[in-house]
Amino acid sequence: MVDRDDPDFLSEGALKGNKVINKTRENIGKIEKLMIDLADGRIAYAVLSFGGILDKGNKLFAIPWEALTPKIHEHAFILKISGEVLEKAEDLDKNRLPLTRDELSGVYTYYGHLPYWQTVVAKQAGLPGETESERIVRMRRTSVGKHPDFLPTDTIKGEKVVSIAGDNLGKIEELIIDLQVGRVAYAILSFGEFSGMDGKFFAIPWQALQAKFQEHAFLLNIPKYTLEKVEGFDKDNWPVTTREWLSTVYSYYGYQPYWQMPKL
Predict the structure, then answer these.
(1) Which pLDDT belongs to residue 121?
(2) What is the pLDDT of residue 89?
(3) What's the Rg (C-alpha) of the chain?
(4) What is the rounded average pLDDT of the residues 143-162?
(5) Average pLDDT in the 188-201 region?
(6) pLDDT in tens, 24-38
(7) DSSP per-residue string spanning 36-57
(8) Cα 152 to the chain's mean position, in Å?
(9) 97-117: burial string, b at 16+ Cβ within 10 Å, e else
(10) Superfamily of domain 9-117 in the CATH hierarchy
(11) What does DSSP assign to residue 97?
């Protein structure tokens, strides 16, 4: 739950490195990474280090996003997990990141949380005319064993963006996080290859991006003629993100806002 006095949206860059505190406001660590579920942009888990009173050295731990409460004006997150549970938690193998979905399920279970993807009842998802929720289910099914389900935000940021035809369009500059639901609200892209668009940033729905692992790129499922009509913003003058504004962005690109999508 986000404090009503705090913003609902923040850039990933503003969240990374925030301190983590316990319920009595003691410093226990910091956020090292956010891991994104590529199927729908959810924060699958946060990677935390624990110093302070826990002093876990250089070990890293996977923590469900639901266990963290943002206190943005304090540049901190309250961790709703007891010290006793954390003391017995298994740390991450840094050479085996990201976790598989099965491994993450065990993490959620250990901390007493239901994995978010298990709240979705899997219906048969056909490609023709499929809903956004059905698309997410299909992506999770077909990704098993082929490519990672999750990627860290610092890997996603900076990746090139290509068109359906394979043309280089630009790159991902930043990810804006919806703190209320714990997911990517939109990506900020730059389009250096477009005439008149160089130096501008553009807000793009996460659903319009698809990871292409072999190309080390993200495919943008938006026609060029649609992009060329968009008015971008300067890197020093970002829009104030609200759901009303974001709804117009999603609608322009032909995508349903994620908070309006029915759950299966």
Answers:
(1) 43
(2) 92
(3) 19
(4) 87
(5) 78
(6) 999 999 999 999 999
(7) EETTT-BEEEEEEE--TTT--T
(8) 8
(9) bbbebeebeebbeebeeebbb
(10) PRC-barrel domain (2.30.30.240)
(11) P
